[in-house]
Write a structure and sequence with these properties.
With 227 residues, this protein is mostly helical. The chain has eleven helices and no strands. Helix 2 runs parallel beside helix 4, helix 4 runs antiparallel to helix 5 and helix 5 runs antiparallel to helix 9.
Length: 227
């Protein structure tokens, strides 16, 4: 007796999703019991990596894998600026953040396989997004919509990979620069009130303003193109 391939695929997806939810929930419960919020977790990571010969590789590994437990990208980006400075920190974070985005995108794409049937409302919405996928991803990244949510959703809706990664690289650049510069402006990362380098902090604020300005520019161009 043959089994419906679609039904078997859905059962597989449900099983993997249940396991993944259990892992995320287990991590959150463990972190809560250990008193490890995102800031405290990153503080401990910073302490461990500051004098480590493998610090950069370990930092990048944690950053790339963090979507699996939905750990905050923002605090890790700030930590990258603190650990490695504005220039090297930016290069490291850009590589790690785009790799983590592709990991989440790939997972979302796997879960989206067979989920969008022809004639389905979600399929119609996904088709419209695919037609303007680059612009959509750029705007979502510039608006600082939760990083992993965008990546998982883009994969699930089967947006093409090249426009996704290009939109992610461009759209997240101003925000990434802002957070890295903020991290580089922090002179102590000990959980107390941070001591800041005002000049680098000012550059971080400028990049956030630039990010908001770019959102308006892209939206205006979209409006003109759609008219």
């Amino acid at each position: 007796m043959s089994t419906d391939p679609g039904r078997r695929r859905r059962a597989h997806h449900i099983g993997v999703a249940a396991l993944w939810i259990a892992v995320v929930a287990g991590y959150q419960v463990w972190a809560w019991r250990a008193g490890l919020g995102p800031a405290e977790s990153v503080r401990r990571l910073v302490d461990a990596l500051q004098d480590s010969a493998w610090g950069v590789l370990a930092y990048m590994g944690v950053y790339i894998l963090r979507p699996l437990v939905l750990f905050s990208a923002a605090v890790l980006t700030v930590a990258g600026g603190f650990l490695y400075g504005p220039w090297l920190g930016l290069a490291i974070v850009l590589v790690a953040s785009n790799a983590s985005a592709m990991l989440a995108f790939g997972i979302g794409r796997w879960f989206g396989t067979g989920a969008l049937a022809e004639g389905n409302r979600l399929e119609g919405y996904a088709t419209r997004l695919r037609n303007r996928s680059f612009e959509t991803v750029v705007i979502l990244r510039l608006l600082l919509v939760p990083y992993d949510l965008v990546s998982y959703l883009a994969g699930f809706l089967r947006i093409r990979a090249v426009p996704f990664i290009a939109g992610t690289a461009l759209g997240s650049l101003p925000g990434t620069v802002a957070f890295v510069l903020f991290g580089a402006s922090v002179e102590r990362f000990d959980g107390g009130v941070p001591s800041l380098d005002v000049r680098v902090l000012a550059a971080s604020a400028v990049m956030l303003v630039v990010s908001l300005g770019l959102v308006r520019v892209v939206r205006r161009r979209e409006g003109v193109a759609g008219a």
